Amino acid sequence: MADTKAEEPERCDVDIAADGDIILALPENRYLRVSSTVLSLVSPVFKAMLGPHFREGNQPRSSDQPIEISLPEDDGIAMKHLCLLLHGRTGDSYSHGNRTFPTQLHALAVLADKYDCVEAISLPAEAMLSRFWIHRTTTPLSMEQTACLATAAASLRLGSLFHAFTKSLVLDYYESYTGLKTVMPLDNISKEHAS
């Protein structure tokens, strides 16, 4: 009888901070070594999670013996890019030529909002989104990609880019917008702009 269980991906360890004292365990067997000090400085959510009121905060940790924190609901690739940015490093796929990148940027924005560290990545995120806007004539985007970028701009509180991408959605595309509900949930966007 054949094994019906899907093969687990090979373990992928990424040293974002070589002297990091925590390892973030993510889906798809991804593990990120990061600095609790950096994460606590830029994210009130991580600060609380690593503080004295949570189990993770009470465990002894050091660069020699990092503790593992499981984040099973977070997107592993997006978390890798978020942690790279928070540690002052650039990612390995921040390129306007990568056509999957609009969805990655959207996932990055969702995590930055979840961990309340939008402000910490606002400049590099604005630069990444701006690159797509600047290169849109030479590297056209699909309607779904433009919607991902508009949603990312909204999550990252980048009003002028949100305006540019939504204006493009209205003026440059002639397809039905009904398929965009999953990519661009209007309830979330209107809540973000109300605050």
In a few lines, what is going on in this structure?
By secondary structure, this protein is α/β, with parallel strands linked by helices.
Structure keywords:
four-stranded mixed β-sheet, Potassium Channel Kv1.1, Chain A, SKP1/BTB/POZ_sf, BTB domain-containing protein, BTB/POZ_dom, 2 domains
How many β-strand stretches? 4
- General shape: elongated
Helix- and strand-based class? alpha/beta
Number of helices: 9
As an assembly, this protein is single chain
- Specify Rg, calculated over alpha carbons: 18 Å
Largest sheet: 4 strands, mixed
Low-confidence stretches: none
Query: How many domains make up the coordinates?
Result: 2
| Average pLDDT for all residues | 84
| Helix-strand pattern | EEEHHHEHHHHHH
- Tell me the span between the first and last alpha carbons: 56 Å
Q: Share of helix among residues?
A: 40-55%
Strand content: 5-15%
What is the topology, as strand order, of the major beta sheet?
A: 1-3-2-4
